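Course exercise 7: structure representation. Students receive a sequence record and must write out the corresponding structure in token form. The form below is the worked example handed out in class, using Methyl-accepting chemotaxis protein (94 residues). Read each field label carefully; the graders check that inputs and outputs are placed in the correct fields and that the protein name is recorded exactly as given.

STUDENT ID: A-19
EXERCISE PROTEIN: Methyl-accepting chemotaxis protein
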Amino acid sequence: MRISTWLTSMIAILTLLFAGVFVCLSLLSHSYHEQHASVLRQVEIKQLGIDLEHASNYLTNEARAYVGLGDIVHYANYWREVKETRTRIMPSRS
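STUDENT ANSWER:
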């Protein structure tokens, strides 16, 4: 085998290897960005769950206080939260 043929073969092989490495790095970068976005969504969803829990607990506590104490303030607080404040309603994502 001649040296020029051998060098041409090696250059072709190295070019293929570099192309493969480039493709792998591109896929790795894409996967990293998707994983990062997924973690951010997970954090947001967890916080929304916590906010919903707090709003639900508030409604439950106001209902219990109204039933237990008969104080109309708790009744008004309950319905103000349901009709006006609406803490438990998540804003739509655009």
